Amino acid sequence: MKKSVIIAGISAAMLLSMGTGALAATKMQEIKAFLNPEIKVKVDGSPIQLKDAKGNAIVPINYKDSNYVPIRAISDALGVAVDYDNETKTITLGEKVDGTAIAQGFDNMYHTKDPDQTTYKGIDYKEAYFDNGKGSRGGSFMLYPKKEHQKLYLQIAAIGEDIEKMEIRDSDNDIILKQVDVVKVEDGLVTIEADIGGVESLYVHYDIKDNSFAFVPLTTSYYR
Q1: 120 within 8 A of 156, measured Cβ to Cβ
Q2: What superfamily in CATH does domain 100-223 come from?
Q3: Which of 90, 53, 88 minimizes the C-alpha distance to 74?
Q4: CA nearest neighbour of 12 among 76, 63, 50, 82
Q5: Where are the beta strands (DSSP E) in 17-72?
Q6: In the chain, which residues fall in CATH 2.60.120.260?
Q7: How many angstroms separate the CA atoms of 102 and 50, rounded?
Q8: Are 75 and 91 in contact (CB under 8 A)?
Q9: Closest CA relative to residue 145, chosen from 211, 215, 70, 198
């Protein structure tokens, strides 16, 4: 059963646990509801403990004979990204239509805005991860999708020699989400896709030889 079907089957209508911003909505109405600890939730046949955004255990709410479960709790259990736009009062589940560049919040010693290092094959990408270290080495950087995105589209190019043994990992759970044996110089800028639904942080690692470089444009690599 697809995850989207599971979500719909658990509850026809769910409450969002997204923090104080949602509570400031002007059209909210007060209701009388009941916490119902007798309701149990299973995913693929296995019982789960629902938790809020802070990791605290929660129970479903019963209102007018319907059970309501926070979307955040269900999305975490199923590994589906969830995000809330307070300005438009919109909840987004799964992959977004518009991408978010990984340049936002990127922090690494090889992060550069130097045009000499952000330009690849005549195109200046403005911001890049440019690993120009010395010697044969393992390169790595962190990304933080914060469970708000479903997919990662990571662009990377090998310069000088091929990039080998590239991995994208769920850093918190030490799970490999994507493996690429080799990124060849001759292939130019390639795009690697990884499913990152429900993932807080990512660890990207690869091996590279001496006198070689790894180039990642941060403005055209993005989350969705």
Answers
A1: no
A2: Galactose-binding domain-like (2.60.120.260)
A3: 53
A4: 63
A5: 34-35, 41-43, 46-48, 61-63, 66-68
A6: 100-223
A7: 30
A8: no
A9: 198
Q: Is the pTM of this model over 0.85?
A: no
**Strands 61-63, 82-85: parallel, antiparallel or unpaired by DSSP?**
unpaired
Chain segment 142-200, per-residue pLDDT in tens: 999 999 899 999 999 999 999 999 999 999 999 999 999 999 999 999 999 999 999 99
Beta strands 34-35 and 175-183 are unpaired
Strands 163-170 and 222-223, bridge-based pairing: unpaired
Q: What is the DSSP letter of 96?
A: -
**DSSP annotation string for 163-220:** EEEEEEEETTTTEEEEEEEEE-GGG-SEEEEEE-TT-S-EEEEEEE-TT-EEEEETTT
Task: Count Cα atoms within 13 angstroms, Cβ side, for 129.
Answer: 26
CA-based nearest residue to 202, from 128, 112, 102? 102
